[in-house]
Specification:
alpha/beta; eight-stranded mixed β-sheet; TIM Barrel; binds ligand 1PR; 527 residues; 26% strand; Rossmann fold
């Protein structure tokens, strides 16, 4: 029986599912005594350092947890569960951590790198430990903006390090107290092995220090499979795919498969993440859309890479006049197994307000959700389309000279953001939206392109460069992939952090392993 310390806010469903998949049962900490009586305690911190420590204190968990750790009892911290073991964090100066390991957690600080550090990176093993039994050097999944560094005082507890802006601590072990900055529950089969190694030993044997060889790891470029999901005319939930967002063929909604089965296939093929977009969620209250919640629940039981869900994340009032905030909607998705939510239309509205008043209200969906679940859990999905102009002076928007002229030979264009899946235009351009969302606290941009969607003609490199250069959060390039060369092209020609595709995967035109193999051949780092 594994005791899970869930202090309420986060997505611990994926941790629970991953533990169960290794054959163990899980019970939740409900009262402080549950910590005292635990045999093996797992703490997957979620949100921010300050929020985590303060919530532990409010619930009366902080003292018992610290005693449990000082007694050297079996413990696995994940992500913030590692960071809170340190003395303090720049994320919340003045709030002391559990102080089990000496040192301070710092923000990544290199303007050339995307922050958060999201994706699959390696680890350099500094100590021999049962935790990494049978570990064969696979990449593991990270998502964080802050990290601890090796110092002379904590060096003995450092199990592995990882390279990003220099070297940071990616796992620690002090006696029976272990913690990982990466997410074993989201790191595919390698992560499952690490979790099993920990859980199957009530006592982890003392780690033995290895030599201090120079070792560097590299963050991989991510390949994401995207499933646009909606009901077809018979009411069945199907994966569909449009041409420039039109998903109907001869009047019928295209049916390319069942969501959970298809997602599982992509997981087995080696997709680094799976994204579900509930593409008609703007029409109805998404929490009434139980099939979508069920898709998420079932997927998260069998898929151990990050799951993102988008569609309908905004404020709603239902037929009984009950109000649901965007945070309520997102919370339901997180509890059902999502690791990130993706906000489309509502992000345009939030940034329009921001631009109008010049200040953030703290009440937008992006701000509310990132405050509780952390920036890394909030993706903004941009649906832009090109608007051609003859002269840059014809508009106030960020205009770009393009190598792909318009229908009347126009050499300039700007990217108009749309709402409701391209059905409604806005006066916000893609650069304004991306910058605005970053300011409001989004952790990542999913950059679609209506002009390229479903065309198989390649990614819109001009758009991707424009947006990538405007923000420091990671950008996922989307729309237009038609052959493996399009993936290498987008990684070589832009700084994009990930590439997402739908049609080519659904129609089995390119298997995901073929994409990875092609990228590896060109020395582009992938998992
Ligand atoms: O506005 O918060 O409710 O979110 C709605 C979400 O649904 C948005 O993320 C929006 O992008 C998405 N969406 C709405 N309508 C459509 C549609 O296709 N009719 N999907 C749609 C479009 C893009 C992709 C596609 C890529 C890659 N999303 O899903 O996966 O373009 O395609 P390809 O590789 O086949 O070219 P809200």
């Amino acid at each position: 029986m594994i005791t899970l310390l869930d202090y309420g806010a986060g997505n611990v469903r994926s941790v629970r599912n991953a533990i169960r998949a290794t054959g163990f049962e899980v019970m939740d900490v409900k009262v402080p005594e549950d910590i005292t009586t635990a045999d093996i305690l797992v703490f997957p911190g979620v949100g921010s350092f300050g929020n985590a420590v303060n919530t532990l204190k409010e619930k009366g968990f902080f003292g018992p947890l610290r005693r449990y750790l000082l007694e050297d009892r079996p413990f696995l911290g994940i992500c913030l569960g590692l960071q809170t073991l340190f003395e303090a964090s720049d994320e919340c100066p003045g709030t002391p951590g559990l102080a089990i390991i000496p040192g301070r957690v710092e923000r990544f600080n290199d303007s050339r790198l995307s922050v958060p550090h999201i994706g699959w990176n390696g680890v350099c093993v500094k100590k021999k430990s049962a935790l990494f039994n049978a570990y064969a050097g696979e990449k593991l999944y990270f998502v964080h903006s802050f990290a601890a560094r090796t110092t002379p005082t904590n060096r003995d507890s450092v199990l592995t390090t990882t390279s990003y802006d220099g070297e940071f601590i990616s796992s620690v072990q002090k006696g029976n107290v272990c913690a990982t900055q990466f997410h074993p529950e989201k790191s595919g089969r390698a992560g499952q092995d690490i979790l099993r190694n920990f859980l199957s030993r009530a006592r982890i044997s003392t780690a033995v220090r290895l030599s201090d060889d120079d070792c560097r790891t590299r963050l991989g470029k991510r390949i994401i499979a995207c499933l646009d999901v909606r009901s077809n005319d018979s009411g069945d939930l199907v994966v569909t795919k449009g041409d420039q967002y039109d998903v109907r063929e001869k009047g019928e909604v295209r049916n390319l498969g069942k969501p959970v089965e298809l997602a599982k296939r992509y997981y087995d093929e080696g997709a680094d993440e799976i994204t579900f977009l509930n593409i008609t969620a703007f029409r109805a209250f998404p929490l009434k859309d139980q099939p979508m919640i069920e898709v998420l629940r079932r997927s998260s039981e069998q898929i151990f890479v990050p799951l993102t869900i988008g569609g309908g994340i905004r404020e709603f009032t239902d037929a009984e006049d009950r109000r649901y905030s965007a945070l309520d909607v997102a919370g339901e998705y997180f509890r059902s197994g999502a690791d990130k939510v993706s906000i489309g239309s509502d992000a345009v509205t939030a940034v329009a307000d921001l631009l109008k008043t010049g200040r953030a209200t703290g009440k937008s969906s992006i701000e509310e959700i990132s405050r509780v679940y952390g920036n890394q859990a909030v993706v903004v999905s941009i649906d832009p389309r090109r608007v051609y102009v003859e002269d840059p002076g014809d508009t106030d928007h960020t205009v770009m000279e393009t190598a792909v002229p318009g229908p009347n030979g126009e050499k300039y264009c700007w990217y108009q953001c749309t709402l409701r899946g391209g059905r409604e235009g806005s006066d916000i351009d893609a650069v304004q939206l991306a910058r605005g969302c970053e300011k409001l606290g989004a952790g990542e941009i999913l950059l679609n392109c209506i002009d390229r969607d479903g065309t198989n003609s390649g990614f819109d490199l001009e758009l991707i460069n424009l947006v990538k250069n405007a923000v420091s959060i990671p950008v996922i390039a989307s729309s237009g992939a038609g052959k493996v060369e399009h993936f290498s092209e987008v990684f070589k020609a832009t700084g994009t952090d990930a590439a997402l595709a739908a049609g080519v995967f659904h129609r089995r035109e390119i298997p995901i392993p073929a994409v990875k193999e092609h990228l590896r051949d060109l020395d582009i780092e992938v998992r």
